Amino acid sequence: MKQVGVLVLSVLVLLLLQATILPQLLSAAVKPDLLLIFTVSCGLLCGREKAVGIGFFSGLLQDLASGNIFGIHTLSKMAIGYLAGLAEQKVFKEHIFLPMAAMLVASLLNSALMLALMTFLGYRIGWSAAMSGEILPSLLYNVLFSVPVHQTVYRLAKRWD
């Protein structure tokens, strides 16, 4: 039960950082998705069940906080958490390049999934403008922030074993 409390508290702290402090420190349009990074790290270290749960909870909170299309973050983070969790048994968890490579792939998949969902819902999206203007810079931030977040989740996961 303590583990669930720590995960919930972590998601809430990351949401607050992402919504309040990071926009002040970084460009307003482009910022890292700390909740995505946390979901992917939990998937790689704890498995798909926890990652799907964390993806659902963090995506739901992000949907509520952002005011965008409701459910789009929830669906995308659950899917990305599931995919990251599939790799749990197949990766060397201590390797420093693991979170960076995983975030590169996860950020691209997350962005493509969100754009596809928005297109499916009838929104006109300029895919090339979205890629160059927001997605690629955000991807770089996600890769940079992935290492400290992953290391923190790794330390927490070792305590739970």
From TrEMBL:
Q: Listed GO cellular component terms?
A: plasma membrane
* Superkingdom of origin: Bacteria
In terms of InterPro entries, this protein maps to: Cell_shape_determin_MreD_prd (IPR017225), Cell_shape_determining_MreD (IPR007227)
Q: Which UniProt keywords apply?
A: Cell membrane, Cell shape, Membrane, Transmembrane, Transmembrane helix
Q: In which compartments does the protein localize? A: Cell membrane
Biological process terms in GO annotation: regulation of cell shape
The UniProt entry, under Pfam families, shows:
MreD (PF04093)
User: How does this chain sit within the bilayer?
Assistant: Multi-pass membrane protein
Taking the first listed entry, what is the main subcellular location of this protein, grouped into a coarse class? membrane
Q: Give the family this protein belongs to, as stated in its UniProt record.
A: Belongs to the MreD family.
Provide the protein name. Rod shape-determining protein MreD
